[in-house]
Amino acid sequence: MLVLTDGQLVADANIMNRNRPEQVLLGGWLSMAITLAHFS
After folding, report:
1. Which residue of 8, 12, 19, 28 has the fewest CB atoms within a 10 Å radius of its CB?
2. Superkingdom, according to UniProt (predicted)?
3. pTM of the model
4. From the CB of residue 9, how many other CB atoms can be counted at a distance below 10 Å?
């Protein structure tokens, strides 16, 4: 599993959203899950 900084996470999400607009929500859920994992 890759460990990304918040900046990398945002950049990757932005790239994904531009390239695959249908995955915007998936990216949002993935970011939320990773964020929650950091605090658990």
Report:
1. 19
2. Bacteria
3. 0.36
4. 16
33 is written with which tokens? 């899950």
pLDDT of res. 7: 72
Place of tokens 């790239």: 15
H helix count then E strand count, the chain? 2, 0
Token output for 1:
């599993």
Which two three-digit tokens encode residue 22?
Answer: 């249908």
Whole-number Å distance between alpha carbons of 40 and 13: 22
Separation of alpha carbons 39 and 25, rounded Å: 21
